[in-house]
Amino acid sequence: MAEVHVIGQIMGASGFSESSLFCKWGIHTGAAWKLLSGVREGQTQVDTPQIGEMAYWSHPIDLHFATKGLQGWPRLHFQVWSQDSFGRCQLAGYGFCHVPSSPGTHQLACPTWRPLGSWQEQLARAFVGGGPQLLHGDTIYSGADRYRLHTAAGGTVHLEISLLLRHFDRYGVEC
Amino acid sequence: MTTASPSVFLLMVNGQVESAQFPEYDDLYCKYCFVYGQDWAPTAGLEEGISQITSKSQDVRQALVWNFPIDVTFKSTNPYGWPQIVLSVYGPDVFGNDVVRGYGAVHVPFSPGRHKRTIPMFVPESTSKLQKFTSWFMGRRPEYTDPKVVAQGEGREDAETEIPRSTWVCLCPNPAWLMLPFCPQ
């Protein structure tokens, strides 16, 4: 079986209009992939930037996969939420990016989006917060049924991911 | 780093904690330690250290320079649990107590060569305003009992701090950076 190590950090997020952000992240793979070590999902702490708009999490990611096929190459997906002083959480954006496929260290910037509702819902969101959310999280990383959504842009999630590949040459894959 | 059969590989890290920028604080010292997985073990060098106390330079740079050496070699059979260096910076508050000014963590670089890393630092903060005031007044800020928790991903959403009944909110001190040139081989 070929092995892939995904090691890195979710550095932080920038470009969001809200401060006090946290991120729920997860990784989705195809059926041929098996997670040998590491946790498949997690949640960062809440960060409130004091100066500048970038919220820093420095959340470590360390995953070890074994795979029999290239289909379903891992995808990292994110939900960025903001927390206000009362402890209520509001969605700031959804985003996903593929894990790179060449070994080495990569800087990734993942754009995010959030669903817009009707104008009444947008007005309510401006005053009391809330807003529509996805029922099924897999819409974040899959293209099916996206045509039903009307969304607005959120900020960007920044990651630094390093990739180590092993035994891919046994299967005729050059990397 | 890729081998055909499971065998031991070595990772040698030479470097220094070069300097920091903390616009609001002065007279700081830093501690470093390494966090690594079960398949890793240090074979040479020190995996922990405490630096000297440094004051800001009087010139326009306002730099806090430690130039604190890091020299450690790890051996492992598995890249999982790649070592992370955890840094904690401490300094005196207005009453003279030693309080934490920032925590940060970064993975040791993955490729041989010279690398310079600047890492953002954060402090845990209590959410209740009364608790913030009493902790400022008493000099007992929220602090991690074990700084190694900064290098872990699990439990960050509701981590405990030393002062009970406070939830965990992080703030980025303005802008606090640590510079770390690494020379791993």
From TrEMBL, chain A:
Q: Does the keyword Kinase apply?
A: no
GO CC, one annotated term: ciliary basal body
Q: Name one GO molecular function term.
A: gamma-tubulin binding
Keywords for this protein: Cell projection, Cilium biogenesis/degradation, Cytoplasm, Cytoskeleton
PROSITE patterns linked to this entry: C2_B9
Origin: domain of life: Eukaryota
InterPro entries reported for this sequence: C2_B9-type_dom
* Subcellular locations according to the entry: Cytoplasm, Cytoskeleton, Cilium basal body
What biological process terms from GO does the record include? cilium assembly
Which family does the similarity line name? Answer: Belongs to the B9D family.
Write out the function statement from the record: Component of the tectonic-like complex, a complex localized at the transition zone of primary cilia and acting as a barrier that prevents diffusion of transmembrane proteins between the cilia and plasma membranes.
Write down what this protein is called.
Answer: B9 domain-containing protein 2
UniProtKB/TrEMBL annotation, chain B:
Q: How does it assemble?
A: Part of the tectonic-like complex (also named B9 complex).
Asked whether the keyword Cytoplasm is assigned, the reply is yes
- Which terms in the GO cellular component ontology are assigned? MKS complex
- Localization: Cytoplasm, Cytoskeleton, Cilium basal body
- Keywords, sorted A to Z: Cell projection, Cilium biogenesis/degradation, Cytoplasm, Cytoskeleton, Signal
* Function of the molecule: Component of the tectonic-like complex, a complex localized at the transition zone of primary cilia and acting as a barrier that prevents diffusion of transmembrane proteins between the cilia and plasma membranes. Required for ciliogenesis and sonic hedgehog/SHH signaling.
Q: What is its main location?
A: cytoplasm
A Pfam family hit: B9-C2
The name of this protein is B9 domain-containing protein 1
Q: Which GO terms describe its biological process?
A: cilium assembly
The gene that this protein is the product of is B9D1
The Swiss-Prot or TrEMBL record describes its family as follows: Belongs to the B9D family.
Q: According to the UniProt entry, where is the signal peptide?
A: 1-19
Species of provenance: Cebus imitator (Panamanian white-faced capuchin)
